[in-house]
Amino acid sequence: MARQFSKMQHTATLHGWTRFVSMQDQYKLLMREEEREMFGLLADQGVASIPYSPLAKGRVCRPWGERTARMDADPVGRRFDLDDDAPIVDAVQRIAEQRGAPMAQVALAWVLRNPVVTAPIVGATRPHHLADAVAALDVRLTDDEAAALEEHYRPRLPSAF
After folding, report:
1. Distance in angstroms (rounded) separating the CA atoms of residues 117 and 147
2. Rounded CA separation 37/24 (Å)
3. Is residue 92 over pLDDT 90?
4. φ, ψ (nearest 5 deg) of residue 160
5. What's the pLDDT tens digit per position in 29-40?
6. What is the pLDDT of residue 121?
7. Alpha carbon of 57 to those of 16, 31, 46, 124, 143: distances in Å?
8. What domains, with CATH codes, occur in the chain?
9. Distance of CA 116 to the CA centre of its chain
10. Sequence-distant (≥ 6) Cβ neighbours of residue 132 within 8 angstroms
11. DSSP string covering the chain, please?
């Protein structure tokens, strides 16, 4: 994908066309594949990342064992229900409890640590979702907290919605 994006940027430059200034991509604690190649390219090209579903359809916003009706009915949401992800969600919960903050704020604060991320797209369905998203802008995770959130991630194949 990074190779294709680079070719499109180069083609735009060659022809005097408008170059990309942003990219909507998947980036969240449960899907970090953009870190491999794409984020380096975006930083080099001055292109912003605007991640969609940074809270993994709410999966990182509630304790691992807590289920919702949507989780069982939404086939896309089930992509974020892998046993490998339980330790990541547990780390979000632990840090959120230590800080006295909602899990959503911790998970969004982690996404916002990446300098190419400019504006995660949150799918707010309730007013408090917006409040959590705004409050995440003021959450500064320590390096130790970020490491705890990242340590259990296992690379996976990118998936599309």
Report:
1. 18
2. 15
3. yes
4. -115, 160
5. 999 999 999 999
6. 93
7. 39, 12, 28, 10, 25
8. 2-150 (3.20.20.100)
9. 12
10. 102, 104, 105, 108
11. -HHHHHHHHHHHHHHTPPPP-EE--B-BTTB-GGGTTHHHHHHHHT-EE--B-TTGGGGGGS-TT---HHHHH-TTGGGG--GGGHHHHHHHHHHHHHHT--HHHHHHHHHHTSTTB---B----SHHHHHHHHHHTT----HHHHHHHHTT---------
Q: Which of 120, 116, 118, 112 lies closest to 139, judged by CA? A: 112
Residue pLDDT, tens place only, 39-83: 999 999 999 999 999 999 889 999 998 877 777 777 766 666 778
What's the gap between Cα 121 and its chain centre? Answer: 9
Cα dihedral sign for 150, 147, 87, 49? negative
- Cα four-point dihedral sign 91, 113, 50, 42: negative
